[in-house]
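Schema walk-through. Below, the input block comes first and the output block second. Nothing else is stored per chain. Lengths vary across the set, and this one has 130 residues.
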Amino acid sequence: MKILIGYDGSGAAKDAIDTARKYAAALDATVSIVTSMVKGTENEQTEILQAERGLNYAESLFTAEKIACETHLLIRGLSPGEDLVRFAEENDVDLVVVGVKRRSKVGKLLMGSTAQFVIIKAPCPVLSIK
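--- output ---
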């Protein structure tokens, strides 16, 4: 079984990591932790380094429990939701785990929701954690 986790370092993403660890251990799954950035020019070097540190931290949580894990920093010009869905399609993922940030209805309307996009468009089941 392949589990994909969308990770952005937020509290909701950390909750998703905790839940995915339990699922991965119970199902003997391999885990892909993905962080998506729209662009990665020289101006974003600080954000890229921060994203890499976050991925390394998340990976260490899985390796400590001997769960097969790999990390991916995607900089493909896509929105995070599009990146996660495309990654799931390209890698035959069986389950996507995403953290849900609490937002008002107006906030979702104006800024959208990565989790909402993934839930609607993913080619496999999505487990949302709030």
